[in-house]
């Protein structure tokens, strides 16, 4: 995320940050940015929708087809809550020769949207739901990790696992200047490794990971079923462990329940301390809301805090997201935080999902990594055994996760017809019944995608 976006005081700031993130995350060229994204003008936030104007109908259609999923994904990153983007044509928004963008007056309360608050132990709310994981993480950050190595923290999405990893990194960098820490999602680890293979530079990859003093891996379950990645991680893990280097892993489930991972990795993940994080109790939820509001310099009435804590029980990220969006609404529209407003915000956040096109792409990318092929090959007309099998699995997972009609799924794979999609789904179901190992791989893919929607 763009570090220049730490303080957002207008709709223009929000859109600028979204555009910056899109360019960085999706490798959008400078000319494409200049043509399609920079001329956009923010209009308003209405409910759960960010309205953006362009001045030509042709641009509107292109923006919707090429960039809308990216914009919506980065709006979620910037504002901390799921948002939809609506592209409209409005010449009046382009009101002077400089294409100046409208700003909004910002009241004193909630004067900033702090999009990237540093995650530390000080701003982690501790309760019975997470006290063991917190205590172990704090000990590890002081290099008191002998009894806890590796530290394996697991729990559902949105309960603070990533916060603890970030806090460990922050504390170690403060206490041990010059320490070499690698903190990365397992998906990034996988992508780096596959890139090192394709560029014939595995040695540099090994040097990077084997020389670290602390290895912090988020969502380790994502390496499950990727044989080459598992093999590489196994050897890196062993070397770091034998050198008594810090190893902290997080997952959405206990190691024993990551079905498609190798037994030798599962054993190693379970050899240190296993600590779970559970959904927060009511009192902890109250504290989380109050702390988030304090960090945003935003006052929420007690009855609204109680209402949010009562309605949202199982996801800290959603709880914080509600506070963030209430703050955003007050900033840009001067809508005061009431129970009625909170009710609408909660409804938007709980019911909203990632745009289906983004989810489909993630499924195709995830399956392609497991089968060691390019996503484009899966969508092509090629019919080699490996590509054909990967395509069937992707079709099955897409249908399971998104519920798209068969015709729409076929369009995602170069216009394949309804009967081809039906056959693919039937084939995968039959193989899952015959082969428990294959079933575990497919189930893990589905769980990983649903967890991160």
Task: Describe the protein's architecture and organization.
- With 453 residues, the protein is α/β, with parallel strands linked by helices.
- Helix content is 55%, strand content 9%.
- It is built from 20 helices and eight strands.
- It has helices spanning 11-25, 30-37, 57-66, 68-79, 131-141, 161-175, 186-198, 202-210, 227-242, 263-269, 282-295, 302-311, 316-333, 339-351, 356-370, 375-378, 385-402, 406-412, 418-434, 436-451; strands spanning 41-46, 49-54, 84-89, 151-154, 181-185, 214-218, 246-251, 273-276.
- The strands form two sheets. Strands 5-6-7-4-8 form a five-stranded parallel sheet, sandwiched between helices.
- Mean pLDDT is 84; it is low at 1-6 and 95-115.
First-last Cα distance: 19 Å
Average the pLDDT over all residues and give the rounded result.
84
Based on CA atoms alone, the radius of gyration comes out at 23 Å
Ranges where pLDDT stays below 50 over 5 or more residues in a row are 1-6, 95-115
Question: What structural class do helix, strand and pairing data support?
Answer: alpha/beta
Main pleated sheet? 5 strands, parallel
Helix run count: 20
Strand content: 5-15%
Order of helices and strands: HHEEHHEHEHEHHEHEHEHHHHHHHHHH
Number of strands: 8
The shape is globular
Physical arrangement of strands within the biggest beta sheet = 5-6-7-4-8
The residue fraction in helices comes out at: 40-55%
């Amino acid at each position: 995320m763009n570090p220049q976006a730490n303080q957002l005081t207008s709709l223009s700031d929000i859109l600028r940050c979204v555009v910056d993130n899109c360019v960085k995350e999706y490798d959008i060229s400078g000319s494409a940015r200049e043509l399609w994204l920079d001329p956009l003008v923010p209009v308003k936030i209405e409910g759960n929708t960010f309205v953006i104007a362009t001045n030509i109908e042709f641009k509107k259609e292109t923006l919707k087809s090429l960039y809308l999923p990216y914009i919506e994904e980065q709006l979620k990153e910037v504002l901390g809550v799921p948002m939809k983007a609506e592209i409209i044509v409005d010449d009046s928004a382009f009101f002077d020769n400089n294409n100046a963008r409208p700003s909004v007056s910002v009241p004193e309360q909630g004067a900033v949207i702090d999009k990237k608050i540093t995650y530390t132990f000080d701003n982690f709310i501790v309760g019975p739901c997470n006290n063991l994981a917190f205590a172990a993480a704090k000990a590890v950050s002081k290099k008191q990790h002998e009894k806890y190595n590796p530290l394996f923290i697991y729990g559902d999405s949105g309960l603070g696992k990533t916060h603890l990893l970030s806090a460990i990194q922050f504390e170690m960098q403060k206490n041990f200047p010059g320490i070499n820490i690698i903190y990365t999602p397992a998906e990034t680890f996988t992508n780096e490794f596959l890139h090192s293979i394709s560029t014939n530079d595995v040695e540099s990859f090994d040097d990077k990971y084997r020389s670290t003093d602390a290895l912090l891996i988020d969502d380790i379950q994502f390496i499950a079923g990727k044989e080459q990645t598992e093999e590489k991680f196994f050897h890196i893990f062993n070397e770091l462990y034998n050198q008594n280097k810090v190893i902290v892993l997080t997952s959405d489930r206990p190691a024993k329940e990551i079905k498609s991972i190798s037994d030798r990795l599962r054993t190693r993940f379970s050899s240190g301390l296993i600590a779970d994080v559970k959904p927060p109790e009511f009192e902890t939820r109250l504290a989380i809301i109050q702390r988030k509001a304090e960090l945003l310099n935003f006052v929420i009435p007690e009855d609204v805090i109680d209402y949010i804590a009562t309605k949202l029980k199982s996801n800290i990220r959603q709880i914080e997201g509600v506070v963030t969006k209430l703050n955003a609404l007050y900033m840009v529209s001067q809508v005061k935080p009431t129970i009625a407003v909170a009710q609408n915000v909660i409804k938007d956040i709980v019911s909203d999902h990632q745009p289906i096109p983004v989810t489909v792409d993630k499924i195709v990318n995830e399956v392609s990594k497991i089968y060691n092929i390019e996503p484009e090959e899966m969508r092509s007309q090629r019919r080699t055994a490996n590509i054909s099998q990967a395509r069937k699995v992707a079709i099955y997972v897409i249908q399971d996760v998104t519920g798209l009609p068969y015709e729409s799924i076929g369009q995602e794979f170069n216009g394949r017809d309804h009967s081809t999609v039906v056959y693919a789904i039937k084939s995968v179901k039959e193989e899952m019944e015959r082969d428990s190992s294959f079933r575990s791989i497919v189930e893990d893919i589905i769980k990983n995608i649903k967890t991160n929607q």
